[in-house]
Here is the input.
Amino acid sequence: MSYNEMIESGEVRPPYAMLSDWVASMPAEMRQMKQAEAEALFRRIGITFAVYGEGGDPDRLIPFDMVPRVFMQSEWRKLERGIKQRARALNAFLRDVYSRGEIVRAGRIPARLVYENAAYEKAVVGFVPPRGVFSHIVGIDIVRTGRDDFYVLEDNCRTPSGVSYMLENREIMMRMFPGLFRNNRIEPVDQYPELLRRTLASVAPAKCEGAPTIVILTPGHFNSAYYEHSFLANLMGVELVEGSDLFVDGGFVYMRTTQGPKRVDVIYRRIDDPFLDPLCFRKDSMLGVPGLMDVYRSGGVSIASAPGAGVADDKAIYTFVPEMIRFYLGEEPLLQNVQTWTLWKDDDYKYVMANLKDLVVKEVHGSGGYGMLIGPKATKEEIAKFAELIKANPSNYIAQPTLALSTSPTFVAEGIAPRHVDLRPYCLCGDRVELVPGGLTRVALREGSLVVNSSQGGGVKDTWVLTE
Amino acid sequence: MLSRTASNLFWMGRHLERAETAARLLDVGARITLLPNTEEGYRNEWESLLRASGAQNDFAEHYGDRINQENIESWLFFDKENHSSVASCIERARESGRIVRTALTNQVWDALNTAFQELRQLKARPRAELDTALLTDFTTRHGATVRGAINATQLRNDGWHFINLGYSLERADATSRLLDVKYYVLLPRVEFVGSGLDNYQWQVILRALSAHRAFHWAYGGEVTATKVADFLILNGESPRSLLTSLYEAVWNLDGLTRRYGESVPSTASVSARKTLEQLMARDIDAIFDEGLHEFLSWFISEISVISNAVHDDYFSGRM
Here is the structure.
C-alpha cells in the first residue's frame, strides 16, 4: 500500500484539511469550467511542450491538475535541509574530482566510475570555477513512501528543466482561486527568477568589470523546453541567445547586438556539454560557440552549470552520494537514497536478473522515463527483451525496488482519486545555497501508474508549503 | 538588442505585410476569373499577377494551366510551397514572434498567435465552406488586429522601429511589383494603351491595393494611367504609395540612428534618404518619359539595396 498524503487512518491530514472541503464543495460543472479555463490560460501563455520522437501536435499542453500538493512547513524544513546538504556535497565532489580526487584516493568511490565516466570532462581538469561551484541549479527528484520517509530518486546537476511549470502553476492557481490563497498561508515561490539571477551574478568571472552581463543559451526555438528558456530570460531580464549570437574574440565572449558586440560574463546554458564548443567537443555542433571553452578556462566567462558537472548525477555515481556527504561534509545524510543494485557487480547482477519482475531497471545515462523497465507492470515478453539488453551491457544499468510512491488527491473523471506523485525542487548554488519553498510536483494521471514523466502521460500540480 | 532579435522583428513585419499582399492578389485573382472568357482567356491577366509576385513558374508547376478559383485560393492562401502565401507568411511571422517572444507585448503575441490558431482551424474546414471573401477578410482582419496591437502596446524603442521598417520596406516592394504588372500585361499589346481595356487593368491594380475608393476621393473622375500611377507612386496621402512607404522607412531608420548614436553605422539610413530625395525630384510625367518599367526596376533595386544595408548595419553584429 502506498502512502496517501491526504488521508491517514481514515482521517484527513492537517495539510489537506482545508483543501478537502474545497474539493468537496466544488460542483462538477464548476470543476470542468475551471479546468477548461486553466487549459485556455496555458495555451494562451504558450506553455506547451513537444515530445521527442512522438510527432503529432508540436504545441501540446502538459496536463495540469488543479488540486495542489501540500506540505506542512515542518515537513518542508526537513526536506530543505536534506536538499541543501545534498547540493553542497555534489558540488564538493565535482570540485574534488576535477582536482586532486581525494575521494577516489581514499577508496570511497571506484576510480573507473569517475574517470571513465562519459560525463567526466577532461577539458576542465584542474580548473576551479568561481566560488568553486560547478552545478548552480541542482534538481533533486524526491519520492515519498511514508509520513516521514523521503527518498532521493535521482540528482540533476546539469540543466534540470521544469521550473517554469512550478512558477506558472502557481500563477494560474492564484488567478483562478484567489480565495484559496487569501484563506491559507502559502509560502510564495515567485522570487525564484530573482534568486536565480542573483546566483548567476554571484559566480561572474574575475575578469568581469562592473555588473555582470548574463545570458541564457538555448538550442533554439525547436527545443521542447524553449518556452522555459524564454520565460526565465524574460523574468530575469536577460537576453536569450543562440550559439550563433555569440562569438569569441581576444579572450572574451561577445554577443552580436544591433549596437555592435557586447561582452557576456555569465552563460546559463541550456544545451548539453558536447554541443557547447565545436572546437573542443563535437565538431558538428551547430548550437555552440567556437572557442568558448578556451575563454572559460582562462576565466573570461562563467558557464552554469560548468562543463563536466554531469559526472555527479549519473545513476552509477548516485549510489555514492551518501558517501560524499560523509566524506566532504562530515555529516550523516538527511535524505536517503533508494536501495540500488549496480549490475556491474556479480552478486547484484545475479539478484537483479532473477528478480526482474519485481524491480525497476534504468539506464545509467537515461532520462525522461525512457530506456527503463518497470518489472511489475511489464509483460513476460517485455522482461525477456529487456534482459537481453542488460546481458549485452550490464554496466549500463542499475536496478531499484519498485517504490510505493505516495499519492496526492487528483481530479479524475469520477471526482477525486489518489494518484502517485514525485517532487523536483530546484536548489540554487552560488555565493549561498538557496531553495524556494516549493518545486514541481509531477503526477501519474493514469490509475495505478508510477511513471510521472510528462513524456509518458504525466501531469503537473501546484506545490504548496503551508506556514504554520 | 540582439541582432537576431532585431532581425526577427524586422521579418515579422515583412511577413505580416506580405500576407496582406497575398490576400489582395487573391481578391484580384478571383475577380479575374469572373471576366468573360475571351479568345485570349483571362490567363494573361492572371499570369501577369503571378509574374508580379515572382511566382508564375511555381504556379504552373503545381496547377498547370488550370486557372480556376479553387487553385488560385490554394496557391495564394493555403499553399506551403508558395512562400508568399497567406498561410506561409502568417506561420513565419508567428514563428519569428515566438522566437522573440520576450520582445513582444502579450497583446501582440496574443493577436499573432490567435491568427495562427484560427488559420489552423480554417485549414481543417472543408474547402466548400470557404469562399474568397472569407479568406481575404480573415487576412485583413487579423493583419489589422496585429498591427493595432503593435501600435497600441509596443514600447517605442528600437524593436518598434525594426518591426515598422519591415512593414514599410515590404510595402514599398509590393506596391512597385504590383505596378509593374502593367508592364507585363501590356508589353505585347502596345496598341491597347489608353483603350477601355487598359483602363480596366488600372482599376484592377487599384483594387489589388485596396485603393479603389481612396483613389476616387483623392482624384475623382476617370481612371487614367497618369492619375493611378501618380496616386500609387508620388501621393503622400496614399498609405501604400511608394513615397509614403519609403518615407516611413526613412523615419524609422532615423529613429534608429538617433537612438544608437554615431558608433553604429547608418548606411541604410543614408541610402534610404538618398532614394527618397531622388523619388521626390520626379514628377509623374518624368516617370512615364523614363519608362514606368525602368523606373520601377530602379526603385525595386533601391529597396533591395536598403534592405541589405539594414542587414549589414544592424543584423550582422559586426565587430
